[in-house]
């Protein structure tokens, strides 16, 4: 049903209707408040002034510069330059100090940690998490379990040259693909997986031959992980007895790792980050709680 909005008025308020009716309810053509309209008109005038004063309109190969000639990029560069000038003396001191010197100077240590935290968020958090608690395949940096050592010098070397990164000085280790490369049979791998689980007190398959698994472990795995399974840091081989698992402790996951091997990579940050930033980043990681 439609009404003539020019002749139909609400009998209670005397306000004209829009002519729309839904289920017997008529829509009133109530005018907007004057104050709201004036604010709306003011925003239109303001936007036109903004277009004129500041850079705004794109052109074929450039953009309008604006009457003020102000650019957000220039403001950012200026702010960064001011920040650099403020931090300059401490950055110079940080650059000149050795890692032990930084660790023994409370003020310099706090500054290094602040710098390192920012660098960690920008470069490391996507893999290790914002709190450095790690993810599947990426170590937890806040505990005291370290594949390559948790001393400040060890961490700095790992950060600088990475793991299997291709850098000439990178840390290198690789777990063979015992199944894919036909070094062990499937039953042998299952027995080894159960034996490895038993090292940290995990349940094993009822049909597992742990004696066979132990013998194979001694033949194939002990060179890197040690006869007792506690790992070797100089080889980056993890401790298999501490219930800390990089990829998970499920039987199927361990079998998968033994079958296809493991060999994640970490980039070498030398050349990507300056030496001072690498020192600050290493110190931040070391002081997360698990540094040695």
Q: Secondary-structure map with pairings?
A:
Blueprint (H helix, E strand, L loop, with lengths): L16 E6 L2 E4 L5 H20 L18 H25 L2 H6 L1 H18 L1 H4 L23 H10 L24 H14 L10 H11 L1 H4 L25 H10 L14 H12 L6
Antiparallel strand pairs: 1-2
Helix pairs in contact: 4-11, 6-11, 7-8, 7-10
Describe the structure.
This protein has 292 residues and is mainly α. Among the domains are: 74-169 and 267-286, Cytochrome c-like domain (Cytochrome Bc1 Complex, Chain D, domain 2, Orthogonal Bundle); 186-260, Cytochrome Bc1 Complex, Chain D, domain 2 (Orthogonal Bundle). 46% of the residues lie in helices and 3% in strands. The protein has 11 helices and 2 strands; from the N terminus they run ββααααααααααα. It has helices at residues 34-53, 72-96, 99-104, 106-123, 125-128, 152-161, 186-199, 210-220, 222-225, 251-260, 275-286; strands spanning 17-22, 25-28. The protein has a two-stranded antiparallel sheet with strand order 1-2. α4 packs across α11 (275-286) and α7 (186-199) crosses α8 (210-220). The model has no long low-confidence stretch (mean pLDDT 90).
């Amino acid at each position: 049903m439609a009404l003539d909005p020019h002749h139909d008025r609400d009998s209670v308020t005397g306000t004209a209707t829009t002519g729309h009716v839904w289920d017997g309810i008529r829509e009133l053509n109530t005018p907007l408040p004057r104050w709201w309209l004036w604010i709306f008109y003011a925003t239109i005038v303001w936007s036109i002034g903004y277009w004129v004063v500041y850079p705004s309109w794109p052109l074929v190969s450039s953009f309008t510069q604006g009457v003020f000639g102000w650019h957000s990029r220039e403001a950012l560069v200026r702010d960064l330059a001011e920040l650099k000038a403020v931090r300059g003396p401490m950055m110079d001191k940080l650059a000149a100090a050795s890692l032990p010197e930084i660790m023994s100077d409370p003020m310099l240590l706090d500054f290094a940690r602040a710098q390192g935290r920012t660098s960690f968020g920008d470069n490391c958090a996507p893999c290790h998490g914002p709190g450095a608690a790690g993810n599947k395949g990426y170590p937890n940096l806040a505990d005291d379990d370290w594949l390559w050592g948790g001393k400040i010098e060890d961490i700095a070397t790992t950060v600088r040259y990475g793991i299997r990164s291709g850098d000439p000085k990178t840390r290198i280790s690789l777990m063979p693909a015992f199944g894919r490369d036909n070094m062990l049979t499937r039953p042998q791998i299952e027995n080894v997986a159960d034996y490895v689980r038993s090292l940290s007190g995990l349940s094993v398959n009822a049909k597992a031959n742990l004696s066979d698994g132990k013998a194979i472990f001694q033949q194939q795995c002990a060179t890197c992980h040690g006869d007792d399974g506690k790992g070797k840091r100089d080889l980056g081989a993890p401790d298999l007895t501490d219930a800390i698992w990089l990829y998970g402790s499920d039987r199927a996951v361990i079998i998968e790792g033994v079958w296809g091997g493991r060999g994640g990579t970490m980039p070498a940050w030398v050349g990507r980050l300056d030496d001072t930033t690498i020192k600050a980043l290493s110190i931040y990681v070391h002081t997360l709680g698990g540094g040695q």
